[in-house]
């Protein structure tokens, strides 16, 4: 796990399925658990889903909060 991977969890969208268009970091735990049981897809997407599953499964989702705050757009007045 590295900072780039954590950032990708917040910016990469699920490309297909029930949660198509939802960011990987925002996928529900039961969906991530399903992938863990059935098998993660190959490649970068599978790696990100596996990482998010580990984070979610271990109750560490709050680790992404500082990155979420940093990604918010600062309003221009």
TrEMBL record:
A Pfam match: QSregVF_b
InterPro entries (alphabetical): QSregVF_b (IPR024530)
Protein's name in the database: Cytoplasmic protein
Organism field: Rhodocyclus tenuis (Rhodospirillum tenue)
């Amino acid at each position: 796990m590295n900072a780039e991977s954590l950032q990708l969890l917040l910016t990469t969208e699920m490309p297909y399925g029930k949660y198509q268009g939802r960011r990987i970091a925002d996928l529900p735990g039961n969906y991530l658990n399903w992938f863990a049981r059935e098998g993660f897809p190959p490649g970068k997407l599978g790696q990100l889903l596996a990482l998010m599953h580990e984070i979610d499964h271990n109750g560490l989702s709050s680790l992404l909060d500082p990155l979420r705050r940093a990604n918010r757009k600062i309003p221009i007045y």
